[in-house]
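Note to self: keep these together.
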Amino acid sequence: MAANSPTFEHIVTDVNETFLWRLDDYPWERNVWNFHPEIEIHLLRKSTGMAFVGDHIGEFSPGYLTVIGSNLPHDWVTATAPGEIIEGRDIVIQFHPDRIRQITDALPEFAQLEDFFSRAERGLVFHGDARTIGGDLIERMGSAKGLSRLSLFVQLLDLLVNTQEGEVLSSPEFAPKLDAESLDVLRRSLAYIYENIATDIHLTDVASMAGMSDTTFSRFFKKNTGNSFTDHVNKLRIWQACKLLAESDMPITDICFEVGYLNISNFNRTFLRHHRMTPSAYRRLTGQRRTSRG
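Structure:
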């Protein structure tokens, strides 16, 4: 997932602020599979890539707006060239729910956020007007200060709490063991898979690197990612295939081998299961979308 060791992310909010607002380049030192007690509202402003939220693996594109609940592991990965920096890829808002709870006695309207905090524990992604308006509010916070920034924050919470355009990401069964040792093993395993996804990678290889038997590692991986090893590898390979289908003229057979499949039948079958269409149909569809946008 990233080259740095994943850690519990320690977040420091200024004593004069209710929440932290931060504009991040990509990659940087905190771009790792991480968790923290603070709730995070995350806007991906640029680029495309893979979103990892609990046991959810999906694609993101510019404007992708999510809310990550307390202690839910997450990461957003963009494939970059060596030395490449994507300036201002992310805007991150982080706040501890207890700071909000402390003011509910004086401002009882904030009590309605409890249900929102509970839903956010599985991660939420927003679409439609909620995504567009929410993204605009987040952008405007960058130049606002004091009560003006807080006002925008409250408007954002009101929008996200009341919209019907939100979708839950992670499954209710996802319950990782969030200790430093497990996270370090998981980080190294995920990084190894990501870096070797185009090869004929096997569970035995990764289990050996993690110092576990195949059976133990398989259980460990499922518990801490929510996906089986095979499903995780296939999702990454199909994501890379989608990018090549949409952004290049590479023959589909070449794409099959480029992303790590050893035969075209297996590739086509897996792609169909994930997208309910063949690779050639996907290429035609994305070509039509590009023409339409143009």
